[in-house]
From TrEMBL:
SMART domains on file: ParB (SM00470)
A GO CC term assigned to this protein in UniProt: chromosome
Gene Ontology MF annotations: DNA binding
UniProt organism field: Candidatus Methanoperedens nitratireducens
GO biological process, one term: chromosome segregation
ATP-binding keyword on record: no
Keyword vocabulary terms for this entry: Chromosome partition
Domain ParB-like N-terminal: 21-116
SUPFAM superfamilies (alphabetical): ParB/Sulfiredoxin
Full protein name: Nucleoid occlusion protein
Amino acid sequence: MLKVIEKDKDKPARLVQTMTHLVEISLIDLTGWNPRCEDSFKDEEFEELKQSMKENGFFKHEPLLVRPAVEAFRFQLIAGHRRLQAAKELGLTEVPVCIQDINDQDTKLLIFIDNFHRKDFSPLEEAQGMKMILDDGAITQTDLAKKMGKSQSYVANRLRLLEAPEELKEKIISREISPGHIMVLLPYVGYPVFDSIFESMKEQIDNNGSVSIRELEGEVIENGIDNCDSVLDLDRFPYDTRHVREFFDFRDCETCQHVVTRDFFGNS
């Protein structure tokens, strides 16, 4: 028993019951649109899936959803990437599938929604899937949010994860930090102080095993700023700050993209 996409654009995409067929695995191709990384085939849940399939056979599991490929008698996988991979690793040659004629946009959306509801779908994979769908220009962030049962701000914040540098992406993949940590750190990305803050955060994680968002916003960022040579702390400047320009040549700073100047009344 398998299902196809719900067409109501104001509801989350879902699947409906349809007929199944038996197809050779060698005839099923991947679309390249699945945002999940290969690590999703290495976790404990995947091993449990393989064990269940080994003991009970594929027919105890939901059939794959495929669509006809451009090449005759071949198919493209839409839903069931982990089930297909498990079947391959177990040496199966045929799997039950449901064949549906679905266009590219709905295929991408269905692949994404099929993964979104899985607990091991990482925030970064989620963001990559959203971008893939939105880049087609067929739907807006608001439309996508409705299909997911989320708010537009949820989609926008997930997409911002893609702006993070690779070292932050690695931390979120390893689950050492959360999307909330990324939101706190993004304003510092691109400035010299970011490297110092990142090192301060790594030290906190190494020493305590984790870092909370409150700790990051407080002592971690403060320590990073204190240890950064590119930061001038006027509170510790030994002279009258009203005369600070007498001690520094600000001509380079005025054209530097990393500087933010404030007058002494707090105005930018």
